[in-house]
Amino acid sequence: xxxKRAIGGxxxxxxxxxxxxxxxxxxxxxxxxxxxxxxxxxxxVALAGATSQLSxxxxxxxxxxxxxxxxxxxxxxxxxxxxxxDNSILGVDISPDGQWLVVASExxxxxxxxxxxxxxWQFKAARSMNNAAVAKDGxxxxxxxxxxxxxxxxxxxxxxxxxxxxxGVRAVDIYxxxxxxxxxxxxxxxxxxxxxxxxxxxxQAELDYSVRSVSAMxxxxxxxxxxxxxxxxxxxxxxxxxxxxxxAEDAISSVSLAADGSSxxxxxxxxxxxxxxxxxxxxxxFQQAEKVLxxxxxxxxxxxxxxxxxxxxRVYDREKALSEAAQSAAHQQRTIGGVIGGATxxxxxxxxxxxxxxxxxxxxxxxxAAPWAVLQTMWKARLSYLLILPTLALLLTFNYYPAFxxxxxxxxxxxxxxxxxxxxxxNFRFLLEDRFFLSGFRNAAILVVVSIVKTMTVPLLVSVxxxxxxxxxxxxxxxxxxxVPIVLPAVVEILVWNNIYDPAIGLLxxxxxxxxxxxxxxxxxxxxRVALVSILFIGVPWVNAFALLxxxxxxxxxxxxxxxxxKVDGASAWRRFWKIELPLLMGQIKLLLILNxxxxxxxxxxxxxxxxxxxxxxxxxxxxxxxxxxxxxxxxGVASAIGMVLFLIILAGTVLNIRYVKSSTEFEA
Amino acid sequence: MxxxxxxxxxxxxxxxALTACGAPAAEPxxxxxxxxxxAEEVVDIEETTAEEEELSGxxxxxxxxxxxxxxxxxxxxxxxxxxxxxVLVELKAPGVDAYLQWVRTQFTSxxxxxxxxxxxxxxxxxxEGRLLNWAPYLNKINPYTDExxxxxxxxxGLNLVRDPNTGQMFTMPYMSIQTFWLYNKALFEAAGISDxxxxxxxxxxxxxxxxxxxxxxxxxxxxxxxxxxWGGGRMPWxxxxxxxxxxxxxxxxIRCQEGxxxxxxxxxxxxxxxxxxxxxxxxxxxxxxxxxxxxxLRDGDINFNNECTVEMMERIGRVFKTENGFVPEGWxxxxxxxxxxxxQKAAMRMVHGGIFTxxxxxxxxxxxxxxxxxxxxxxxxxxxxxxxEYGRFAFPNIEGPCAQGTARANELTQGYLAIPLKDxxxxxxxxxxxxxxxxxxxxKIFLENKLDPDNLQGGIAGPxxxxxxxxxxxxxxxxxxxxxxxNYEKPGAPGDAVARGFFKYEVTKREWSIMxxxxxxxxxxxxEFAASYQALLEDNFDGLLEYLNLTHEDLDNPEKxxxxxxxxxxx
Lengths: 669, 571
Known about the structure:
The complex is a heterodimer. By secondary structure, chain A is of the alpha+beta class. Chain A contains 18 helices and 30 strands. Helix content of chain A is about 45%, strand content about 25%. In chain B, about 50% of the residues are buried. The chains are: A alpha+beta, B alpha+beta.
């Protein structure tokens, strides 16, 4: 007992060690200089100047957001001025020296602002402007619009050219200056196109997926493109060939390349901004708590800004981030090393205790003996285990895996292949207010009772009738005749009954008319008062062949001696049935109770193929609601929750059955 | 003792291994080295030439159809042109729910094997970014026509399918379809009806029903189970057409206004409300702002609990209330009333253009005692199944103080081809096959097989949407006689969006279908229906918003593009 306590203590110590170490290890360095929060999502950010070139006050951070405002901050996060458009700001760019800012807005305008926030000019498109870029000397502005076009404007706001792409476009950047300025455009057809200042297409590279963002080196030698499949691809600006590719975990929302291409920043909807080296290697991951919508890297790569969906703009210092990352990694390694070392020592201590103390040796022998014996037994019967393995694997794959998957997905918002989001008990709360599900329970209860009654009466009577026939030949033929219909699929039987119930030309109504009972004709499935009863009557006279066989099997297994003895004692057939046959059939009754309960609770095809749950919700069952939730409503999570509720009900019913319904064997005992 | 040693040894080795496997320290970057300054000159662009390669690979066609003949013929013709390509025709059994479930299963794989699927219910996959956007390809030259692919299609068709805001299109149409009423000329004559205009008024329609009923026939072959109403069928066509007549003026308040993100200069600034123009709300004439529409619904600017809804339901009830005897007895429990029309027991049936190719086959099958639907067929029915002369008329115009325009019908594109998003090379190959399919030579093969009288799985519902493709002989004549009255089903149409539940939100569709059944059964009055429908909206509004991926904040700022808005949304 002491040893057990000691082992428990070691386990506890390990857990504490890990509990302390893991959160420490999870701490990530930030390199955060400052952050600013606005009321709405930040759609665009831009960064000008850097600590190596300008003073803190000389650097500029532009933040455009959904509240129509462009905010400009200096290097320390002090607000300088703000510009307000008539609708959301969707795109922002700033020249490296902070002299020019270009703003694209949902109000259909692109604005060129000077360093003081004054509007130099504005240009209106037919649809919203969704992004814009400005040359480093302010001589050229390019903007993309929801009218599926690219616009190039000169320093005075005059339209130089417009390219109607006829395809969604929102990725734009400019490299070079003056007459040598070039426009880089990425579009939804996966094309990255370089245009001259005059609008001539110079080069086109074809990517696999829609291009969401582009960024070019100051001389255009390298172009970084972010695509909606989560890849950021560096292209050779001279020939469009791919140089390297980085894969994020979700779509790329924004990319930014340092002026000299020495580093790249990739913002993704996976909630991260990835800082990459010039060979595409990951330098550092700036983890955010939400989707990253926009990123910008200072021309020299020394600073970066990340705009997130929650309205937070964070400015990081690259050097600080990397330095802290290195420190944190070393700290993390030390922590993990310490945990492993501690765990090893504790384990060694455990072994020492087990080896050098009498009690330890005793516990070791006792605890290792049973598993060892099991392994030895399994090895002896290895062929049997090998043969059963495929069946076991198939069972696990096709029965257990889907069942457990359903249990898990009951707590999720699940669309297979699309999303799986944990929602806790929301699906179950929804079910509490789902009138179709709730009314389905009333119907399911009726179905359970009626199903049990149907199974426990007619098949039992028929089986007793056959059993008591004196002629063996008659027994054989009656048994065969009653059992043969089992070959008819249940679906066919239901469809036949659909025709019988047809209100216009069905057998039932026609028969009623024929015998003068026209007033009793009904729309059997269309009348809420009789719809459920109509369904319940399907299969009249309910000679369930399976139940019949079970009962009959039970009856023929009753010892002839008991029957003969009762006859000698003068028991009537009726008394024999109640006092001998029925008590000895309790095992069969118990089995059929369980099976019928399970089948009735899961009733689906009977309702689906007849009324579809109608009229109104009159004939709904939980299983039908499960089907509709999965197939019609695309709410697989709720459907899984219904499945789980049904599972619990069936489990409870089965347990009660096993616990309180006695089989004949127990009766005899 | 050996065991102890082994365990100790294993522990030590394990500890060492774990230490070695611990998270490596992030490579300390060379933070001291300042990046080199970029060169001032811009890079020279090299001359590049693209090499043309022979197409190769597999294309898996998995459409929900039993018509192997047609799709295999297309595949064979394509493979003959491109020996390196293997087109596998792996059709799936028709049936909306089962096919969608199969499609969902395919999409659980990151890269589905299937190349081409077809269904009008693929919105969720488009929204999740799993379907190819056809728009970039429509911009390209179709190698089988040598012209821009987009130019092969009728403009109106593409306009109905692609998003008016972004141009994105995720399902490809290639045929057209129209809904209308078909009537049995002999039964009309027997009832004393001789004058049948191309589009009757509702009063005329009611009068016909009375005459046919009094002559001893069932006026309308209509089924009305929950499934037939909720799942889509004839009754929803009628209700949507009616709602369209009563909600057209709402365009004025829900359209994109100057300053809205969706406002299109040159289109929205020129639009004028004209209920007499059946194309007044076409997507190439007006943009609709989903936020404004929902805001109007939320704030009660659009309300259903009023005299206009009552008027509309009373008009509809004059024909379809069971007590009037114009629909088959027990129609609310009937899943298929088509045999009543085929066997000339019923005089009228709401149909789509597919009836022209299917009716002769259905009568022939019925005469042989076979029937593909769910209705019952007996010997008497089989004997009654003989070809008869039929005529057509357009959806009747409901008239009343609140009716705002003439009745319109489904005049739609048909064909919902979609391609799961894969890498460019594979998608290019798959699109090439569709380019062939929608070229005159591909469509010729398609139509020849679809219209082959021996192809029991064939048939078309309307003329092709592809230009320069003509239907063969008699079929051209049949479809040329079509009377076009306008289309109610189009993006943003205010009536259609709220006609059967709200915005295809299944929760409201289901409740609506039950309300409709109760109304026709006489359990709800028109006034109660109007009140219940408004309550349905109010009770489910938040769920509706969530389903549409919108928020109240979006409705409060309708000029802004909602962050949750998607091009393929159910708006």
